[in-house]
Amino acid sequence: DTHYHIGKTQNESKHIIAFVQENQGDPAIKDFIPHLKEHLLMRIQLKLEQDEDDTHDATKYIFFKNERIYTHRLIRINYTTYNVHRAQEAINPRTSHCNIMLLNKSGGFDSSASSKGPSAHPFLYARVIGIYHVNIIYTGPGMLDYKPTRFDFLWVRWYKHTPCTSPYRLHKLSFPPLASRGAFGFVDPNDVLRGCHIIPSFNLGTLRGVDEVGMSKCAYDSGDSKAYYINHFVDRDMIMRYHWSLGIGHTYSHYDETPPSLVPPAFPAYDPTGTGTAEEEISITSNPQVVPMVAASSDGLDDFLDDPDPDDPELGMDEQENEDLGPEEWDHAEIGHEGESDDEIFEMYFM
């Protein structure tokens, strides 16, 4: 029943101060410890049911047991599919299966893409670059005891979403500059919806040449593409996530209204060039709703079957048959040569 699984082992550990010093100068490691403490503080506040105002600047009360973080190579995400089946995906930062998607609750990397905005995309996307857990001792307001508590977290590099210019194209992603604020972050594994399929835009090329070395050893950015596409069609469950509230198993989509970015007010006529200059439009309501199929009552269905409409082209065919024509008359009427023998008809057709 757990949403995710990370190994319990503590065999691979790093001294957190030494880890930061070893990677000094790496853009991904900038403010690593302060940002990690801010992330952990929010989760501690949720556990203690405290408001943020009550624990302002409480990161100084967070201590890492033995000053160590513990590394893991794999995380398994369990999720419910659109048809209420259970599925599992494995995320490994060292392979191509390293991308995840989350609900867009706080706006993610770009504050202009906040979920409160008029054109917010409903999901956030990130590349996992590390899987860790730490044992935390919290001594701030609302503390319970001095026993260490385990917290699992993912170290991620955020994708930036580019609004789609055409309803016939895939949504596009790109990485913000490594040195930009918020390019990296931490994620609670419980917030991960599932893994996702991110396709490089091969025609645009990469940010660096084949032989060039990346700027960040931790982010593995040497092979970064200039842009990426979100593959909505990798499987049936993924397709239904972009048809908001239609997936029965996607319970998160049943509470809020349809995200504006998933409601096309009017689809332009298909333009193969992708320029979107076609003038014809197919009228679609700006706020489409799903109309459920309701089965008719048994009484009404029986009345309908007992009293078919004689004018219906499909129903009531027996009532519309010509009673004046018997089998012999029907044959003559179909052939159109009443009173002629078979020999005369054959001679006429084979002259």
Structural class: alpha+beta
Number of strands: 16
Which runs of at least 5 residues are low in confidence (pLDDT < 50)? 107-119, 263-308, 312-337
Q: How many domains is the backbone divided into?
A: 2
**Main beta-sheet annotation:** 7 strands, antiparallel
The helix/strand order is EEHHEEEEEEEEEEEEHEEHHH
Q: How widely separated are the two ends? A: 84 Å
Based on Cα principal axes, name the global outline. globular
User: What portion of the residues fall into strands of 2 or more residues?
Assistant: 15-25%
Question: How large, in whole angstroms, is the Cα Rg?
Answer: 32 Å
Mean of all residue-level pLDDT scores? 76
- Percent helix range: 10-25%
Biased composition (Acidic residues): 300-328
Biased composition (Basic and acidic residues): 329-339
Region (Disordered): 299-344
Structural key phrases:
351 residues, 7-stranded antiparallel sheet, 4-stranded antiparallel sheet, 6 helices, globular
How would you describe this structure to a colleague?
By secondary structure, the protein is of the alpha+beta class. The protein folds into two domains: 4-266, no CATH class; 298-349, no CATH class. The protein contains six helices and 16 strands. The strands form four sheets. Strands 2, 3, 6, 7, 8, 11 and 12 form a seven-stranded antiparallel beta sheet that branches. Strand 4 and strand 5 form a beta hairpin. The termini are far apart. The model is unreliable at 107-119, 263-308 and 312-337 (pLDDT under 50).
